[in-house]
Every structure is written in C-alpha cells, then in structure tokens.
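Standup notes
- DV: blocked on the single-chain target, sequence here:
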Amino acid sequence: IFTTDISTYDGILVVGGDGTFHELINALLVLPLSRKLGRAKGGSDEERQRKLDELRLELMPSDVPIGIISAGLTNSIARSAYGNTSAEVAVFHAILGSRQLI
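- DV (later): unblocked, structure below
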C-alpha cells in the first residue's frame, strides 16, 4: 500500500471485521508519513526518530470511498455505517455506490 497511488482507485472494499477495517485506516494514515520519510531508510535509529519527531501527521480528507463487507465477530463499524451487519447488504451498498460519512 505504501507504493500505491490510492487516488487512482474508484474505492477500497474491505472484507473482514472491525480489526481489518482498523488496520486499513491505520495504513492509510501512515501512508503520507511514510512517503515524507522516504521510508526512513539508512541512518541511525536516532536520526530516523528525529525525522519522525519533526514530521506532523496531517489528516487529509479522501475522495476514495471505503466499503466494509462484514466478516468479523461484532462488526460494529458495519453496523454503524449500514445499520446492520449483513454481508449481502454491504455488497449491495458497494455496487450502488452508497456513501455514509463516518
């Protein structure tokens, strides 16, 4: 995901539960930071830590929609987004392009 230009995609569809969705969101938040650091290759641990300390992670709104197809135990995020945890309903929303701000 760190070398992918997410803006070239129509959307991201996650199949999993709350943890899978959480991992995706974390990766998307770290993406701008990792690009700024150039993946922090080379240099000492202190130099990499100094670079990290100097950077601020700025949250930028994204136009790329993220869909969730429920496949976890509790599926709280899907329940909040769609009002239920049905995988079929989630697929239907994805096909129709329904959007719900979270």
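- Follow-up: The mean pLDDT is 77.
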